[in-house]
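Researcher: Quick test of sequence recovery. Tokens follow.
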């Protein structure tokens, strides 16, 4: 039995950050196809110079991040059947980062932020013992594939361009995984308060909505970090106790 095919219209961004436009292409699609399949088909048949970043095509490398109909998504995890069939499918680059060519953006800023975070720092000569609930608490944060969709949708980065003051949801996830790790002995709260810009987040949950790994970024990472910072630096009783015992 032959597969059922139909034509779909795609509006694909072509150009650079300085100058570009959305160009119309048509691609034959079959049941089960994802946006990445169609984009690669367009590249093969009509636009061999189309700039697109992809790797595993399995939703685990985070390379194929774009905006589909204005929403940050992974092309390899967005089925064409889930998009409106009577409208053109608009595919553009992540708007929070500088464009390089077509659908490819410069996300190197994220790696510069990552360098600022102190790595896991376990105590020396300690037993590596953890309770299951402690493992469960931090295991979720390990699922991040660094697609940076959460960074793209965050209004602090996307709309207000506060990259010089703000780390963004992805790195609050990393900081939460370290700060909540029972074996990590680094004192991170002062750094989080002074350098990460976590106070700029107004808890809109938009990062939760676009995360392909369904990490509860706001509820399980950002809010707990905010609470820890508030307790330590703005609760007078706890602040006094920390001064006595020199904990921070």
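Model:
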């Amino acid at each position: 039995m032959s597969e059922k095919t139909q034509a779909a219209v795609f509006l694909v961004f072509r150009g650079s950050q300085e100058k570009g436009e959305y160009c119309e292409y048509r691609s034959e699609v079959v049941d089960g196809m994802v946006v990445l399949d169609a984009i690669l088909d367009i590249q093969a048949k009509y636009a061999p110079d189309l700039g697109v970043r992809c790797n595993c095509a399995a939703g685990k490398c985070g390379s194929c991040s774009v905006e589909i109909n204005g929403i940050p998504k992974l092309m390899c995890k967005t089925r064409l059947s889930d998009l409106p069939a009577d409208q053109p499918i608009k595919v553009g680059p992540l708007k929070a980062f500088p464009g390089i060519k077509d659908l490819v953006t410069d996300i190197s800023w994220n790696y510069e932020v990552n360098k600022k975070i102190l790595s896991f720092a376990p105590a020396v000569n300690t037993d590596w013992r953890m309770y299951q609930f402690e493992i469960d608490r931090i295991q979720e944060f390990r699922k991040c594939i660094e697609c940076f969709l959460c960074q793209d949708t965050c209004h602090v980065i996307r709309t207000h361009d506060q990259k010089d003051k703000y780390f963004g949801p992805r790195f609050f996830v990393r900081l939460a995984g370290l700060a909540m790790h029972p074996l990590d002995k680094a004192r991170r709260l002062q750094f989080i308060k002074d350098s990460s810009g976590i106070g700029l987040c107004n808890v809109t949950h938009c990062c939760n909505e676009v995360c392909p790994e369904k990490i509860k970024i706001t509820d399980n990472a950002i809010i707990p970090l905010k609470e820890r910072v508030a307790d330590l630096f703005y609760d007078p009783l706890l602040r006094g106790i920390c001064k006595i015992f020199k904990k921070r």
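Residues 217-234 form the longest helix (18 residues).
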